[in-house]
Amino acid sequence: MASNPSLVMRILSASVAVSNRASNIIRNVLTKGDLGIVEKGKNDLQTEADRSAQRCIVASLHKQFPNVAIFGEEDEMTQRTLSFVNKPQYGTLSSSVPHWTPPKILELYDKNQNLQLDPQETIPKDFIELNFDEEVLKHTCPEYLKDTKDEDVVIWVDPLDGTAEFTQGFLDHVTVLIGISVKGNAVAGVVHQPWFNFEKPGLPLGRCIWGVIGLGAFGFERETPPPNKVIVTTSRSHSDRMVTEAVEACNPDEVVRVGGAGHKVLLLIEGKVHAYVFASKGCKKWDTCAPEAILHAVGGTLTDFHGIRMNYSADVQRKNTGGVLATVADHGKFLGCIPEHIRDAMDKSSPAPELDFKGVVVCGGADLEKAKQNNGQVSAGKSPSPEENAESKSSSDKVPNDFNTKL
């Protein structure tokens, strides 16, 4: 039972627990060998692992937090999943329509606002995870989140980030993403790697990284990025001329092409790359909410190509049409490297609403005009340390002094 009175910490604790179960489900699908691949669109695949993992995550979190908004990548499946938790063995939903009802969910209700259950729909009992991760609950909730209410929260779920790589056997690229936003701001997240250590027999398989802005990030070891070079990561399976041109404009010494937004941000926070550059409108809110929260928890920055920190409210458009730029330092310099015509091709994102962080310093958008004046110079060997980067920012755009990752 969750003893921590904070709603955000209880949701995060439940998310860590259910991410472990979802990862087991994903591994089991691969072991059985029938991936059940469906092509949703160009370069956009869905597998039985995606569908089953989302059933697990959405049904479990909805059962525990019935009045909190949950949005997942597999939208139609999410709508069906809501009926699963009304089965007698799992209890019954409130008779009133939840405030977070996504589009078309209302079609599942009758005139008395009761869910119309499909008797043919079933969900295995072992898909439902109602436990909490006790390690998360041991931590004190940051002051600015203590009074968070159900209606303030939106949970963004990508049940299997890196589906293309999953189908091609690049298992270390795969992650499960559960992001938590409060009043439109990404504040906490879970990134679970089901196959971490899969090439190292004898070591535990899988790992879970989680973090909260104002508390820190946990579950990984951080290293300092190489000081004598610039390493950029970008998409492996969703590349085009514009994506390539934006990366090349940063003058990288090395480009690391991998799958999944979650995996790319993990490379950042572990100190293996300096920046994640993706000049495309294809990334979505469930791809970036959890990674952004964890990156900001360790002092990094994630914005669109206009330097805008994104809005994760329930009514925001799902696509990140402004592109994605993420860094652990020198964000303004990388932003200034992006050619003007590429920036002009990207939309300006809806900015994250103002939130009273009560003294917690949060990385925001970079100073784009200042970056332009400096000609966007990103020089190998000149990237400041996180502490130096914090000192160089204005009082409204500093990284936390306590930068060290907590394990």
From TrEMBL:
Protein name: 3'(2'),5'-bisphosphate nucleotidase 1
Biased composition annotated in UniProt, kind: Polar residues: 373-382
Known cofactor(s): Mg(2+)
Binding site for Mg(2+): E73, D158, L160, D161, D287
Gene Ontology annotations of biological process type: phosphatidylinositol phosphate biosynthetic process
GO MF term list: 3'(2'),5'-bisphosphate nucleotidase activity; inositol-1,4-bisphosphate 1-phosphatase activity; metal ion binding
Entry-linked CDD domains: IPPase (cd01640)
Coiled-coil annotated residue ranges, if any: none
